[in-house]
Structure formats: C-alpha cells, structure tokens
Here is the input.
Amino acid sequence: MKKQRVEETSHLDYISTLPNSLLCNILSSLKINEAVKTSVLSSNWRYVFTNPTNLTFNSENMLVKDYSFSNVCQISKVLIFNIKMKRASTFVSNVNKYLSRVTNVRKIDKLKVSFTFHNKGFGCNDLDEWIRFAVERNVEEIDLCLFEDNHLSAPNDSSFYVFPCDDIVCFNSFLKCLRLAHCVLAPQKPCYSFSTLEILDLFKVDLKSEEYVRILLSSCDNLERLSFSECYNMDYLKIEHSFCKKLKYLKVNLCLQLKAIILKSNDLETLEYVGSKVEFFFDTPMLKNFFGRVIESQGYNDENWLVCKLSTLLPHLKNLFLECSCMGEVMTNRFHTFQNLKHLEVIKVAIFRQDLSWIPIALNACPSLAKLKLHLRTYFNIDEELTHWFPRSPHNHLKEITLTGIRGYSSEIAIAIYLVKNAISLEKMIVDPRPRIYTGNGKCVCSEACESWNMIGRHKVENLLKQEVSSLVELLIL
Here is the structure.
C-alpha cells in the first residue's frame, strides 16, 4: 500500500495547482506559439494563455517561417518588395489574431514590439491599436524598436513611424517606462500621461525640433532617468527647474546635431555625455557624477573641450569617468583643480606606448582623490625603457589604485611605479590584465587578457612592482 501511495503521488500535476496569476506569469516568459500550445494540455490549461502579463511581438514570436535575404544580390527589387510585404502582412495578421484571443486580459505589464514599421506604411494603424490595447490595460512599460537589424538598410528619417502620444496615450496614467527606437516622438501639446513616466530611453528617435523636446520634457514630472542616444533634430537640450523635477540620471550619446546642453536641476546626480564639442551650462547643485568622452580629435586642443571646463563648471564633482586618447596634452596645458573629486576613472587609449606626463598633473589637480582607476589600452608594442621621470608629486589621500588592461609594457609599469612612489597613503593596488569596455552609467565589462600575460607580462610586472611597494600596501596582481 505504501508503495502504491508513492506512485500515485508522483503523478500529481503540481504545476496545475499553482495560482492562475503565477501560471500566467510563467507562460508570459515563453514564446507566444509555445504558450498557445499549452491550451491542449488539459481543460485547466485551456484559457491560461489568454491572460498574459507581457506582450512581446517580434519575428521570432510571430513568424513561424521567417524570410531570408542572404542572396539578395541575385533577387530583383520587385521580388524583394513582395517578400517584405508578405512578411509584414503575416506578422501583422498573426499579432491581430493573437490579440483577438486575449481580449479578456485586464492588466498588461509590458508591451514590446520589434519589427520594421514606416510612417503611414503597412501595419501602422495596427501598431496604433496594439499600443491602445496595452494602454487600456494599464501597461507600465512600452518598448518599441521599429527597425530590425537584419533588414537591408535603415529607413530614411522622414519615413519613421510617429509615436501616437497625442491621440492614444493621453488617457493613460500608469506608464512608468517608455523605450523607443527608430521612430518620431514629437508631442504637439503636453501629454499628461507622461507625468507618470520614471524612465524615458530614446535611441535614433527623431525629435523634430527644440520646441517639441520642450513640450515633451514639460510633461515628465516624475521622470528619474532620461537617455538620448543618436537622436535627430535636437540642436539644444534645455532642462529647466520646472521640468523633470525628479530627474537623477541624464545620458546624451552621439547626438551629432547638438550644439548646447543647458541644465537647471536641483536633483540631477549623474550626467553621461559622449559626443563632439558642445557648450555647457550647469545649475545643478547635486550633480556629483560625470562620465564623458569627446569623439572628435580637434576637441582636444580647444579651450571649450569637455574636460577642461568641468573643474570650473562643476566644482562639487565627486566622481569623474573619462575616456580619451591624448590626456597628457590636455591636462598639461589647461587642467584646473578638482578640489572635491574623490574617484577618478580613466580609459586611456594609446597606439604605441602609454604617456606618463599626465599622471603628476592629475595628482596635483585632484588633491582629495581617494580612488584612481586607469583602464589602459595599448595597441602596439614599442617597449622601450623610460629615460625621463617626472618630479615627485606626493599625494596624501589616494588609498586605492586599480590598473586594468595592462600587458606588461615598460610604459605601463612606469605609470604603476610612479603612482606607488607618490601615493604616500596607499593601502591597496590592483593590477588586472583584462581590458575594460565601457557599457554606460559608470559600468564596464571585462574582455580577455593578452596571450603573453601569463608567460611574460605577469612575471615582469610582479618583479618590478614588488621592489617599490611597501609591505603595508596590499598588492593584488591577477
């Protein structure tokens, strides 16, 4: 009897006993066609898929058979057009069919669409309805990427789908996150539903003009994170005290038409800027973190260059992250003092050898610095001994130094030795051969160390550094 009871128990369907809301969450993480197939498992599962918490519409989910353009050079333009139209028609039809089966769902957490749509092109009216469907069900996150990477060419700016903020989203009061890519966002009047937004992330979005940007930002009362990446038709970014009153993080990345950034915010804590030379104006008493990179070489020799202005414009800065290739010239000529800087992080790119000249300038310019991270990138090996050492520049507060991407070249070791000799309060030094790749918001990912590190580089660095490092300093060589 005991054995029989065990066998019976082992056949119980524990998954079906889970709460329906939890089952809906589980099915929402599956592909849509997989979720629909669960309806045949039993009578209990027949309608579970009709209550999704997330809607994800992409080619992987909605096209059983996708279309390949691998031999596109041998296909006529007419045939390519017909294939694209057939593909789009099937995609739209499948989404509409699926939505017709889930009309009873009451709450949608997220709508994500990844497919190519053009302004007033095929399927745009359907996309409007999908957004409306989600909005009517109190959607909290909308993520639209309206151009697929595997298509032949990017659409012209004028053909971008226009996000229907004036007509569709105006009655929504639950939207917290809006991510848009390859579309137009240009509200002609304040969109009060945007007042609930906490995150606005725009990639290759046509903003039309400064006036539309002003209207957009004036609607975002609760916005905490704002990102413009490779956006079009934005000459000036101006945030007033009355706009985005809770904004803490702002990212501006490669918006090539931008001429000036004017920031007046009492809550902004972090600014990330990547791009060409622009004018800055700051009225930001809480701005303590800056991540920056200038992309054009002539910017390094100009008085308005980004780094040269920061110490004057942001004297209260605590954390500074920079990426550059000729730091030495800039700092030597025009680098002023950061009295309050505690953490300096630099990605230092060099073609042939690392430059030591900027290190003493940096130490003098940052008298309160406690943590220094140098992410070195040296592409070619001209490994010659350093013949000229710069005068000592003792630093009283620097306690932790991290060097990454080091290969064991003499110019790299010279930097490490100079820092060790001058950081009189040093407690810890980390040498990591893995280069860092910056991913944004102060975060980096590691790549592989060079092949010669374990055979040559590590032994060389260890021998030379141990001769200079005090026994009171923790030296960690990875």
